[in-house]
From TrEMBL:
This is Phytanoyl-CoA dioxygenase. Gene3D superfamilies: q2cbj1_9rhob like domain. It comes from Nostoc cf. commune SO-36. PANTHER family: PHYTANOYL-COA DIOXYGENASE FAMILY PROTEIN (AFU_ORTHOLOGUE AFUA_2G03330). It comes from the Bacteria. Pfam families: PhyH.
Amino acid sequence: MPWIYPFANELVFANPVIMGILERVFYQEYVMVQMGVDVPFQGSDYQETHRDFRPLFSDRIVTPLYALAVNFPLVEVTAENGPFQMARGTHVLPREEGLEKVASGEIPMESFYMQPGDVMVRSPLALHRGSPNRTNQPRPMVVMGYAMHWLHTPKVDLTLPKDYYESLPEKLKQMLRCQLVESLPQNKVETYVNFKY
C-alpha cells in the first residue's frame, strides 16, 4: 500500500492500544516492517494453509514470538466474502504436526468474522489461509507487520516519503524499518514474493 492518508497516520500504524499489546509481547525493541492489504475478489479460492514465517531455530523447538501481524478490515467480513481462517494453537506445533491435526479435524480451521473497527493481533507462525470470496464486492483487509528489531527479512516493503518520515517523533522513526524516497512513485508495480511456509 502507498504510504498515504488515512493509513499514513500515527493513530493507525502506532495506535496506542495496539502498541500496548505489542509492548507486552515483545520484551525488546520492535519495528514495523510491513503494511499491505489482502483483497480477495469474487472467484477467489482457498489459499494453501501456511505460515508467514519459519521458526527461528527448528520446527521441534517452540519459537518465542518474534513477529506479530495486525489485521483490520475495511468492510464487514462475513462467511460469504472470504474470512481469514486460522488454526488456533498451531504456532507452537511443528508445521507437519499442525497440518495433520488440521486435516484430521482435531484442530479446526476457524473463520474470523469482523466488523470495520475490529482488530486482530495474531502470530504469523499459526497455520492460516484465506478463504473464497463468493460475493461481487472485494473484501479488503489491511495487514501491518511488526517484528523484533534484530530480525531482518526480505519480505519488508515499507516505503515512506522522506519529508513525512522526518516530521515524526524520534521514537516513531526508530519503530519504522523503511525505505525513504523523495516522493512516492505514481505507478509502482506490486511485487509479491511467496513466503508461505
